[in-house]
Task: structure prediction
Amino acid sequence: MQRKIKIIPAKRIEGIRLRKDLPIDAPAIHETAQGMIEYLKKIKGLGLAACQIGIPERWFVAKIDNQYIICIYPAYKPIASGKTKMWRETCLSYPNEAYNVRRYQKIFATWETPDGDNITECANMFGNQDAIIFQHETDHCNGKTIKMIGQRVRK
Ligand SMILES: [Zn+2]
Result:
């Protein structure tokens, strides 16, 4: 049975501290992530972090390079001398709001992925929108939201 996706109130994820040392339960993540991906497809969403639906773990699903992927323990650092740009972003945790957020234009991203019972480590370089999505979702895993780091603009 797939879990019903319910976004929890934003207050509960603002500043949340998620552990970095939990063992990864790959089959459980796979199953929950499938439900999250179906949900994103239905609402044409680009990303959703586990903490946004009340799972206190550091992973997310996102549409990167036109496909939905599961990123566990995500991290990023800037490339291209750290050039930044202001982006207008929305978030499923703030359904009626939009924020301008300063983001790195290009990043080096790392994460782990559940592959059956195996976890493999991947590294990739992203540009533009994929980089923004990855930063937005990774920030969720670090307790940071667009409301905390951006300026509100009209949706
Ligand atoms: Zn968000």
In short: The chain has one domain: 10-15+24-153.
